[in-house]
Amino acid sequence: MEVAKRANGFDMGVPYYARHRRPEAEPVFEVVYVEGLWQLRPEVAFVTLHVPLTPDTHHLMGEVEPTAMKSTAFLINISRGGILDQEMLTRVLERGVIASAGLYMATPESIPVDHALFKLSTVVLTSHIGSAPHEAQR
User: Would you list the DSSP string of 28-53?
Assistant: First the structure.
């Protein structure tokens, strides 16, 4: 719902999918519930994933869901790397099914520098910054 607050500031419509529908939040945050990721609408410009990594969410998005997105759409995963199948994502991006992806984490967390995702100019990868504080480094 925090993303919806910001999207509403840009007059963006916000369809959402969650394990538990929040009907009380829908009018407040101006969001519309959809039955599953496969219901992504072709007009959706950004898809953001915000889920914990569990057996139910592992590889949550398969090859079918990106085909429901428009070719200029951006996929942003701020969840753990295992939420997306990286090989699927690589194929989808190479074929131009979607425009770009932003990944907070990969699987493994330090993917090899020769991984195909690093070769794509349409991907932004960030490291898991939880280890950045000096206390964690010590």
Answer: HHTEEE-SSGGG--TT--EEEE----
Main-chain phi, psi angles of 26, to 5 degrees: -60, -50
Q: Are 61 and 36 in contact (CB under 8 A)?
A: no
DSSP 69: S
Same domain membership, residue 131 and residue 83: yes
31 shares its domain with 49:
no
Containing domain of residue 92, as a range? 40-137
Structure pTM? 0.82
Segment-wise mean pLDDT, segments of 10 residues, the chain, 138 residues: 89 86 93 82 84 89 81 90 89 93 82 86 79 64
Asked if residue 43 lies in contact with residue 73, where contact means CB atoms within 8 angstroms, the answer is no
- Catalytically active residues are 80, 109, 128
